[in-house]
Amino acid sequence: MVPDRARRDDATVDDGLEPSGDDLAASLPESLTIEVALPAPVRVAPDDETAVALSGQSIDPGVIEVLETGTTTIALADDSLARATTSPPTDTGGVAVADYTRHERMHGTRVGPESAAMLTADRLIDSRRGLRAQPEGAWPRFVYRATLHRVNLGDSPKVRARKELDARIDIALEGGARFVPVLTRKGGVGKTTVTTLLGMALASVREDRIIAIDANPDRGTLSERITKQTRATVRDVVNRAASIQGYTDFSTLVSRDETRLDVLASDTDPMLSEAFDENDYNVVADLAARYYSIVLTDCGTGIVHSVMRATLQRADSIVIVSGGSVDEARLASETLTWLEANGYGALVRNAVVAINAGTQATNLVKLDEIEAHFASRVRAIVRIPYDEQLAAGSAINWDSLHPTTRYYARQLAAIVMDGMPVVER
After folding, report:
1. What is the pTM assigned to this prediction?
2. Confidence band (pLDDT; 50, 70, 90) for 202?
3. Region Disordered: start and end of each range (predicted)?
4. What is the pLDDT of residues 147-170, one digit of tens each?
5. What distance in Å separates the CA atoms of residue 309 and residue 347, rounded to the nearest whole number?
6. Does pLDDT of 178 surpass 70?
7. Assuming Cys at both sites, which of 135, 270, 313, 419 could form a disulfide with 140, CB separation 3.0 to 4.6 Å?
C-alpha cells in the first residue's frame, strides 16, 4: 500500500493542482531581499529661486547676511551678476541677446551672440606675452637696442623715481574742485613765487585744469610771473559772472603759460583792489570750481581781511611760506598759531611749509633748525633752493629753471596732493 501523504503528493504533481498555502510557506527561505532600481530624484527650482539664480558666478561668503526672519540676502558687488532680474541685453538692432555664463564662454558654448562688453582687456590680453615699453635711461636703452629689443632691463632708478613722483602728483581727485591757499603774514618771502612754482608743477603733470588766483587786495604780482595774455582781472570776472556760460568764456579772462597753468590777475588799481572782498572772492571761486580741478589762491598778508576768511573756509589744504631769516620764520609760525586759535587746527595739521631758501641772509641761518621747528607743527616741509631766475622777480619759464628747482617744486606738488582725498582710477 502507498501511504496517504505519498498519494497526495503524486496526485498534486500528476493532476496539476496548486499546492496548498501551508506547503508554499514551508518551501520559502527564511529571508528574501529584492533590489529595485528607481530613477534619481529631480529637483525643480521654484520660480522665486530661479529669478535670482547666478549663472557661473561664485559668491563670497563674507557678503551673505542672514536676517532675523531667516531670509538670506546676498550683496552683489557687480550689477551684471543679477542678470536674471533685468531685461535681456539687446544688440544694435534691438534683438534680444541670449544669456550665457562664463563657463560657456570659456568652453566655446554659444547660446547667443556676445555683446561688445564681453571684449575686456582681462579676457583678450595674454599676460604671458605682454610687451614692455621701451626703457628710459642711457644704459637700459642701449641694452634694449643692442639686443634688438630682446633684453629689456626696465627704466633706470632715476626714471622710476621721476615716474613715481608724477604718479603722486597725478592722483585722481574725489568730488569737485580742490582749493589750496598759499599764505603767510609777512610780505617779500616768495609767496607769489611759490604759488607759481606749485601751479606749474601741477599743470606740467596733470591733464586736468589748474588755476592760480591772485586774491591779494594790495595789488598782487602773480600775473607778472607768466607771460600775460590779457588785461582782465578778478574784477572783470565779478562783473561778467552772469554772462560766463562755459570755459571758453572764462578762458578769455585768464593768462596761460607753457605748462597749461591758468592765472587770474588781481586789480592793478589800489582803490579797486581794496574793494575786492569776501563776496567777490566767492563769485570768482564758484566760477573757477566749475571749470578747474585745483584752485590755488595767492593770498595777501592781511590775514584778518574778509577775503582770507572766505579762502580758508574753502581750503582743502594750505601752504605756508617762510623765508630763511629769523623774523620770516617766526611770522610764518605765528601764522600757524593764529589759524589754530581761530578754528583751523585741522588745516594746520595737514599744512605744508615751503621754506624759500633764496631770501636774504639765508646762508647765515640754520635752516635745519627752522625745518625741525615746523616739523613739530605741520605735515611736511619742502625747501625751495635759490634760483637766479626766481631771484630776478620776472616771468618764470618752467623749462629754464634749474633742474633742482623743478625737482623741489614737484616735491611740493606731490606732498600737497598726498593730503587730498583721492579715488583710485
Report:
1. 0.67
2. very high
3. 1-25
4. 887 888 888 888 889 999 999 999
5. 13
6. yes
7. 135
SS (H, E, C) the chain: CCCHHHHHHHHHHHHCCCCCHHHHHHHCCCCCCCCCCCCCCCCCCCHHHHCCCCCCCCCCHHHEEECCCCCEEECCCCHHHHHHHCCCCECCCCCECCCCCHHHHHCCCCCCCCCHHHCCHHHHCCHHHCCCCCCCCHHHHHHHHHCCCCCCCCCCHHHHHHHHHHHHHCCCECCCCEEEEEECCCCCCCHHHHHHHHHHHHHHHCCCCEEEEECCCCCCCHHHHCCCCCCCEHHHHHHCHHHCCCHHHHHCCCEECCCCEEEEECCCCHHHHHHCCHHHHHHHHHHHHHHCCEEEEECCCCCCCHHHHHHHHHCCCCEEEECCCHHHHHHHHHHHHHHHHCCCHHHHHCCEEEEECCCCCHHHCCHHHHHHHHHCCCCEEEEECCCHHHHCCCCCCHHHCCHHHHHHHHHHHHHHHHCCCECCC
Nearest partner of 357 among 384, 392, 394, 397, judged by Cα: 384
Q: Which of 68-72, 190-194, 408-412 has the lowest mean pLDDT?
A: 68-72
Confidence of residue 175 (pLDDT cuts 50, 70, 90): confident
Whether the CB-CB separation of 388 and 351 falls below 8 Å is answered with no
Q: Which residue has the higher pLDDT, 83 or 195?
A: 195
Q: Within a domain: residue 64?
A: no
- Nearest CA to 390 among 214, 182, 225? 225
- Chain-centroid distance of CA 362 in Å reads 39
**d(C-alpha 134, C-alpha 158), whole Å:** 15
Q: What is the pLDDT of residues 36-84, one digit of tens each?
A: 666 666 666 666 555 555 554 555 555 445 444 455 555 544 444 444 4
pLDDT of 98 strictly over 50: no
* Alpha-carbon distance values, 86 to 118, 133, 176, 311 (Å): 17, 42, 33, 48
Q: How many domains does the chain have?
A: 1
Q: Does residue 348 form part of some domain?
A: yes
Asked if pLDDT for residue 328 goes beyond 50, the answer is yes
Report how far residue 347's alpha carbon sits from residue 416's, in angstroms, rounded to the nearest whole number: 12
Is residue 47 assigned to a domain?
no
Q: Report the CATH number that the domain containing residue 251 is assigned in CATH.
A: 3.40.50.300
Q: Does the residue 52 lie in any domain? A: no
Task: Give the N- to C-terminal CA distance of the chain in Å, as an integer.
Answer: 114
